[in-house]
Amino acid sequence: MLSLEQYEQDVQAWEIAQEEATYAKNNLDFVLKGYIGGVQGASNIIKSTIGGIVSELPYKEGSVVTEHSNFKEGSTIATISDMSAIFFQGKVGEMEVAYLHPGMQCEVSLVAMKGKKLLATLTKVAPKALESADGTSIKFAIEGKVQINMEDKESIKAGYTATADIVLDKAINVLAIKEQYVHTEEAPGENVPFVWVYENNKKVKKHVELGVSDGIYVEIKKGLTANDQVMTEDDSH
Questions:
Q1: What is the spatial distance between Cα 143 and Cα 85, in angstroms, rounded to a whole number?
Q2: Does residue 79 contact residue 59 with C-beta atoms inside 8 Å?
Q3: Coil, strand, or helix at residue 136?
């Protein structure tokens, strides 16, 4: 039989002894194992929020790391790459960005894999230009999701240099000539394209309607036929 006062003192001493034993065990675990075990798992083991492969380990074993808080950024102890989804990131000029939109298909060529080409779908077109170091070039960031199979997934590494070919428009089996042979003349409110052709032993001007251009050849929609002889030099003088 114990008095209530003596019982409460003994219970308090027992609880304190339990806390001291747990503290001593945690210290022993940290010395022997390098972490403190507990009911909820190790308190100083950081678990990744995504699945993937470890692509970078900035710190070696034994390095001092700091926890992220409102007052400090904290230490990045590992970079995890989710290789189940590969994204292409690039930059385009202001003249081309107006023609791009999410959902467009493009072909991505990997330099490290001897120009291997993969199909990608644009997922992002930046609404604002990036700041350039020289202050002259204006570029917009774009991003696309690359479609890869299991064989390519094992060989492709994060950080590869790539080039994307985006087809804005195309024309197949059409009449085309070199763009350098197309001239323009001023008309009210516009410049009218024309070419010089050799017809009936003389030079004749023919107005044409242009279509798709790849920078070298331009499509001729109207004004010429496959039998016309286009003059490659302007000898009007």
A1: 13
A2: no
A3: coil
In this structure, what token pair is assigned to residue 87? Answer: 């994204």
- Digit-coded pLDDT (tens) for 27-52: 887 777 766 665 555 556 777 888 87
Alpha-helix runs per DSSP H in the chain: 4-33, 94-97, 150-155
55: its two tokens = 């692509």
Residue with tokens 């385009």: 92
pLDDT digits (tens, 9 = 90+) for 169-198: 888 889 999 999 999 888 787 889 999 998
Asked if residue 237 has pLDDT above 50, the reply is: no
> Measured between alpha carbons, how far is 225 from 222 in angstroms, rounded to an integer?
8
Q: Rounded CA gap, 191 and 119, in Å?
A: 38
Q: Is 208 exposed, middle or buried (0-12, 13-18, 19+ CB in 10 A)?
A: buried
Joined together, the tokens standing for residue 181 give 């042979």
Query: Domain 169-237, what fold?
Result: 2.40.420
Give the tokens for residue 95. Answer: 């003249």
Q: Which stretches of 46-112 are DSSP H helices?
A: 94-97
Domain ranges across the chain: 1-45, 48-82, 86-165, 169-237
The predicted model scores a pTM of 0.51
Beta bridge partners of 223: none
Q: Does domain 86-165 have CATH number 2.40.30.170?
A: yes
**Token couple for 165:** 């070919």
Question: Which residue type sits at 102?
Answer: P
Judge whether residue 120 has pLDDT over 80. Answer: yes
Cα–Cα distance, 137 to 126 (Å, whole number): 16
Rg for the chain (alpha carbons), in Å? 35
Residue pointed to by tokens 């994204």: 87
